[in-house]
Amino acid sequence: MEVFDSKRRQTGSLVNESEIYGRGEEKEKIIQGLLTNQDNSQLVYNDVRVETHFEMRIWVCVSDDFQIRRLVRAIIKSIDGSACSLSELDPLQQILQEKLHGRRLLLVLDDVWNEYHDKWDGLKDALRCGVQGSMVIVTTQIENVALMMATILPIHHMGCLSKDDSWSLFKGRAFGVGRVEEKSELKSIGKEIVKKFGGVPLAIKALGSLMSLKNRKSEWLSMKESEIWDLPEGENSILPTLRLSYHHLPPYMKQCFAYCCLFPKDHELEMDKLIQLWLANGFIPTKGGLDLHHAGLHIFNELVWRSFFQDVSEDVHGTTCKMHDLMHDLAQSILRLECFAVEYGKEVKVP
User: Fold this and answer.
1) Keyword Repeat on this protein (predicted)?
2) By CB count within 10 A, which of 37, 161, 187, 213 is most buried?
């Protein structure tokens, strides 16, 4: 058993638009709602029309840690870049209201899981100071959260990608730019594989990255006809698709990936620390005269390319990444019979 403090990830507003397909219409609907006071958040947040309409734009990652004081401090820090050490809610709210007073605000609360009305009402009270036209966008995977937090209906549901957009995303990963015609015999098989994804971008990117490593027609046919597509997975029908990518990892890479579920969901993974942990657990093999740290770096980069890790960020302190919630679910389903994780500060019964 390993225990990790819940160091929450900080999702950002920047997005690689070259890998975004099929969201143009949804983006326009949300933007028009914002600009007309009636109503993808990353695409919307960075649109030039939104930038000019709102005097202040703030992005805060919430996750399942919906503590009002933490969120108010995060909003204050986003405004002027300075951390606030106050712990009492009342002075925090006063500072926030001073900074927001008379300004048109767009606040994005990303990845919200809180279903408690009193917590949301407490945060709303602290935000009742912007001018008319201020807006809050909430992103969530839970319908009840959207219904509870919504003040304007209807709620915007993100749809799955169309067949054409799914194919565009897949072929960009599987064939690279301008190379699809070079592999025309694989094109028709690829389109059959894409139909099995259900328009889910994460699954398309993961399998597209995997197929970029396979050049033989027999390998593509084997993937198309795999029995794993037919496995039931309860409500998470995407997991069999992701499991295909996992099954094609080398054994040592499977260990490195599954190990990451010991971190809490939404944890920010530090590359150097992660490689050290892989080394300490004996997951990284020696091969080709490559020193172990560089071998670990190769594994990290491979997991990024195959979409097991995402949102890689680099700064003076090093490289970090995140795991999509569904990838975390996949890792847990693999490792659940061998160990379990306990979040710091939460009581749990050890089986």
Assistant:
1) yes
2) 161
| pLDDT value of residue 24 | 59
Instruction: Please name which of 169, 147, 157, 8 lies closest in space to residue 73, comparing C-alpha atoms.
Output: 8
**Helix, strand or coil, per DSSP, at residue 319:** strand
For 193-254, the DSSP string reads HHGGGTT-HHHHHHHHHHHTT---HHHHHHHHT-GGGG---TT-TTHHHHHHHHHTS-HHHH
Q: Which residue do the tokens 């809490």 mark?
A: 264
The answer to whether 260 and 323 are in contact (CB under 8 A) is yes
Strand, coil or helix: 114: coil
- Confidence band (pLDDT; 50, 70, 90) for 251? very high
Confidence at residue 10, expressed as pLDDT on a 0 to 100 scale: 44
More reliable by pLDDT, 272 or 66: 272
Largest CA distance in the chain: 66
Which residue, 142, 334, 309, 162, is CA-closest to 239?
334
Tell me what the mean pLDDT of segment 312-333 comes to.
89
Residue 34 has pLDDT above 50, yes or no: no
Q: How much is the pTM?
A: 0.59
For residues 16-35, average pLDDT: 53
Name residue 60's beta-bridge partners. Answer: 109
The span from the CA of 40 to the CA of 22, in Å, is 11
CA distance 37 to 135: 8
